[in-house]
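So, could you explain the following?
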Amino acid sequence: MKINKYILKKELLIELKNSSSLFLITPTMSVLIIIFPILIENRFAVDEDLFIISRLLFLIIFSTLFAIRKPIVLNQLTKELNFGNYMKTEFFNSKSLAEFLIFLPQVFILNILFSGFTNSNVNTSLINLILSMVFFAVNVCMINIIFQIFTSFNNRFVQFILIVPMYLALSIFIGPLWLGLGQELANIYLLMYLGITIFIFGTTNYYIEKVNLR
């Protein structure tokens, strides 16, 4: 996996600029998602599982907001790569790493804020929680790269509609882990999630190699 430090630095700055507004969205949306169930139930005591489901729901919304952006214009990208004498694999690998390095800390911040607002925790060990978030972040970034390459939708609503089902599918393995499983079942879920992550990572790299840029 070849990384170019100059491309990585540039993409990190771009991702940080694009994602800065999400740091404001995170606490605001967290509070809204917490308040709505309380208003609906007309009580101030909310079941712990409802908090976990709300946490997972917001993770999906947050990931979707992170992924919504302008698609990659391949013709323009080709000119830029040719001008800088960079390979396409260098660009996409550096871009993927930049997205991951920006996105993963925000996922951790989201969970810390959510726990702080609700005084609630997930029903799993810290190691399982961290691993599930890392796998989720890798998958989100890989899917995001494929989406940027092969779609040309500039409409944010259309992007939202297309991306949400993908992230819902990714959350299927996180939900049971966070709601509470025995260690043996949790290990099985993590192994399956690791397998899916490796598959998506390999598929993304395969399509990156097939992109006709140079």
In short: The chain has a mean pLDDT of 76. The chain has one domain: 5-210. Residues 195 and 212 are 28 Å apart (CA to CA).
